[in-house]
Design brief:
about 140 residues; mainly alpha; 6 helices; 3 strands; elongated
Length: about 140
Amino acid sequence: MEWLRLYHEVRTDKEIDELTDAQFRIWVNLLLFASEQKERGVIFYRNLKQLALQVARKDVETLKDTLEVLAENEMISWDEEEAENKIKFLHFAERQYDRPSDHPAAIQQRVQRHRQAKKEDVKRDVTPGNDVKRDVT
């Protein structure tokens, strides 16, 4: 399951506070949609109408207004006049980083390598004479 981190500061963030309730909902939907993309944090789209179907309940005008506010506040990079229809969340990678625990298979492999190395170290630590128990009486 993919996660999207949402930080407590959103509640008191001045830029987010500028958004209407509908724009806030669209912002959250944009974040979620960006998180699902092949390049996380970047949304490529054909046109605003198609994107509005995904994130704005078909409301193209509110979507456009939201994108303008987010771009003005430097939260996204977006230019309606740009040839490439792309929205990029500017600090997405910094805030949506992966932790090792997000990849259990990688952790399992690391633990297996660690255990194997430990077994090999134990075999090397045995020196002649130390592997025989002596009778101390």
